[in-house]
Write a structure and sequence with these properties.
- With 231 residues, this protein is an alpha/beta fold.
- It folds into two domains: 1-96, Ribonuclease Z/Hydroxyacylglutathione hydrolase-like (Metallo-beta-lactamase, Chain A, 4-Layer Sandwich), CATH 3.60.15.10; 98-223, 4-Layer Sandwich (Metallo-beta-lactamase, Chain A), CATH 3.60.15.10.
- The chain has helices spanning 13-16, 19-24, 35-38, 41-48, 62-72, 144-150, 169-174, 180-186, 206-216, and strands at 6-8, 27-29, 56-60, 85-86, 89-90, 92-96, 102-105, 108-114, 122-127, 132-135, 155-161, 196-199, 220-222.
- A seven-stranded mixed β-sheet has the order 7-8-9-10-11-12-13, with helices on one face. The protein has a four-stranded parallel β-sheet with strand order 1-2-3-6. A two-stranded antiparallel sheet has the order 4-5.
- The longest helix is centred in the N-terminal third of the chain and has 11 residues, at 62-72.
- The two termini are 14 Å apart.
- The structure holds zinc ion.
Length: 231
């Protein structure tokens, strides 16, 4: 969640949002359609259904919208919220973005950069007008993202994924994720001297990943859930 106003991905949005965030967040930007990135979205909209005075806007690529409509908001798994209204109007709408494009979500400007994951997936350069952060989303080794990050002069922080520990490198490679060792090599592509934070660790391997990152990628810090970071 950024500035309590915009969410990037929604894996635990319904469960983790504070009252203030639930009141304010109507813009949700999705990196890709894997369940751990969208699981909290249906219930988030459900929670707001009767009270929201504006629709929850889902920013996603055409492919992701198609998956959501076919597999989640399909009247079988959950209601097709885009067809429903409350007393104030629509409760959910899609805003499609295209690879490489720049779009506005809430008060933030997003640049979508294709990354290297098992399904079509995007990282983002996110700007509030005075500074930017770069977020990889789920990915393995990639190129365009680093070119975008390296040409962002006001870059203040980098958020990267590291899903698996080193001993699960084969699984990481087949599912297009990083391990600490491979992330350390990947970070050599980053020219900017900015703080690097690891997100999207598989929870059961968290301690192991933290330990290994400490040995091989000492410049990185691990994001602590629930903590507020300011850049
Ligand atoms: Zn994924």
């Amino acid at each position: 969640m950024i500035d309590d106003r915009v969410a990037v991905d929604a894996g635990s949005l319904a469960m983790a949002a504070s009252d203030l965030q639930r009141e304010q967040i109507r813009d949700v930007v999705l990196t890709h359609a894997h369940l751990d990135h969208i699981a909290g979205l249906p219930m988030y909209i459900d929670d707001l259904f009767a009270t929201t005075t504006e629709p929850v806007r889902i920013f996603a690529t055409r492919e992701v919208v198609e998956v959501l409509e076919r597999d989640i908001f399909n009247w079988s798994v959950y209601p097709r919220f885009r067809e429903l209204t409350n007393d104030y109007g629509p409760v959910m709408e899609y805003r499609e973005f295209k690879p490489g494009c720049v779009f506005q979500a809430g008060h933030l400007r997003f640049r979508a950069v294709g990354v290297n994951h098992k399904v079509p997936s995007f990282g983002f350069i996110i700007s509030d007008g005075s500074r930017s952060i770069a977020l990889t989303g789920d990915t393995a080794e990639t190129k365009e993202f680093w070119e975008a990050a390296n040409t962002t002069p006001d870059l203040a922080a980098l958020l990267v994924e590291c899903a698996f520990p080193d001993e699960l490198e084969e699984l990481a490679m087949s599912s297009h994720h990083f391990t600490p060792r491979r992330l350390a090599a990947e970070l050599k592509k980053c020219d900017a001297e900015v703080p690097v934070y690891v997100v999207n660790m598989k929870p059961m391997y968290r301690d192991r990943i933290v330990e290994q990152l400490g040995k091989t990628a000492s410049r990185v810090q691990v994001i602590e859930p629930g903590r507020v970071y300011e850049w």
